[in-house]
Amino acid sequence: MVKYGLDYTRCRWILPLLLGIGVIFGIIALSGRGWLESQTLPYVQQASLWQSCRRPEQGGDWSCESLMGYAWGRAAAATYLVGFILLVICFALAIIAFAIDTLRFNFIRGIGGLLFVAAVFSIMGLVIYPVKFSTEIEMTGINMFSWAYGFGWTTAIMEICLGFFFCCLPNYEDQILGNVKPTYFYSSP
Predict the structure, then answer these.
(1) Order of strands, edge to edge, in the sheet holding 143-145?
(2) Nearest to 109 by CA among 85, 92, 93
(3) Which percentage of the chain shows pLDDT scores above 90?
(4) Domain residues of the chain, as ranges?
(5) Cβ contacts of residue 57 below 8 Å, gap of 6+?
(6) What is the pLDDT of residue 5?
(7) Please, where are the H alpha helices in 12-146?
(8) pLDDT-based confidence at 1, cuts 50/70/90?
(9) Across 75-84, 96-105, 134-143, which has the greatest mean pLDDT?
(10) Average pLDDT for residues 164-175, to the nearest whole number?
(11) pLDDT value at position 188?
(12) pLDDT tens digits, residue range 86-133?
């Protein structure tokens, strides 16, 4: 006997787990100092979502400037932070939704919609930052958007993908809950 569909009892925590990983990646992006870094020696520039630091020569002291003094810096931080807060809310709602024995599939579709809104806010912050940073802040040497900025994009991509999963999951409600008659490959003659 071969049964198709998802085994709800074993797979019910995969989506909340992936949301939790997205939250961890978002925390790394928010707190990481590697949004922009110098690519070659001497390493003279390093920036996070919150501040930009530079030093005159190798081994010198870093001097940091807050990006919250710029309107674009506040906009980038605020939009990415709103997207992250919406992601945390979706994570909490997913834990609640999957912990209940009788799953409410319309509630899950709402989580998917909220994830799309979170992705829009995150992407807005991730686009504002490099465009305005490279035009407003004087950069010396060869610089690259680095690991923490990559974690930000990973979070945004996870929000989009998980939004699709949460929106499409109610389409398979009968298969998940086991209300579909199993299909057998073997039939008696």
Answers:
(1) 63-66, 51-54, 45-47, 36-38, 143-145
(2) 93
(3) 35
(4) 8-34+71-141+148-172
(5) 42, 44
(6) 43
(7) 14-31, 71-99, 105-136
(8) very low
(9) 75-84
(10) 74
(11) 65
(12) 999 999 998 888 777 666 667 888 899 999 999 999 999 999 988 988
From CA 94, how far away is CA 91, in angstroms rounded? Answer: 5
- Give CA separation, 134 vs 35, 43, 59, in Å: 12, 17, 25
Tokens coding 115: 């994830």
Which residues, other chains included, contact 177 with Cβ-Cβ below 8 Å and sequence gap of 6+? 8, 103
Q: Which residue has the tokens 């002291």?
A: 61
Question: Could you tell me the two tokens for 158?
Answer: 């996870």
The C-alpha R_g of the chain, in whole angstroms, comes to 22
Longest CA–CA separation in the chain, Å = 85
CA distance 124 to 127: 5
